[in-house]
Model the fold of this input.
Amino acid sequence: MRNSIQEQKINLRKIWRTTRQGIEETIRIQASLEICAQISRWNVFQDSQVILTYLPFRAEVDLRPLLKECPQKNWIIPRIIPATHEMIFHAYVPQMLVQHPYGMEEPSPKLPIVEPKKIQLVLVPGLAYDREGWRLGYGGGYYDRFLNEFCGVSLGVTFNLLLIDHLPHDSFDLPVKCIVTEKGLIDLRD
Done:
């Protein structure tokens, strides 16, 4: 049985997914490039060597220019296992990407697994974020479970249009420590 927060999230996912899809492609591309530039200038990024990121899906912020600009970083990409709601991590090897049944690209399971404890920085996708770091994800809980065990810095990645004042959150949700949009980076760490 769903609680009222879960119902609110379901409704907000529909709204924010439609809003994000409505961003004109040229604006989305330019905003993605500016977000990549914001991240590349950030001292935490510059100091991190092992970085978990994602590949864009359904009009998400495209961070691939950052991966191309910084090949010296050890880029890690998740592979999701729906049956267990787990994420497994592999090095980013463009020639070894496969399509997940959900439609997104992910690493081939043939690649060696990267231990999560090696990850220093995670770039977290989301439909929307609020100014306190709470995230509206896609409902699978993959990143929430990962962030619960993660000791590094989490950076929420979103378009400025999808940075809102308040999002509902459950007791098991975890806020990110920082947020980046094309307008700038917000550090929420104490």
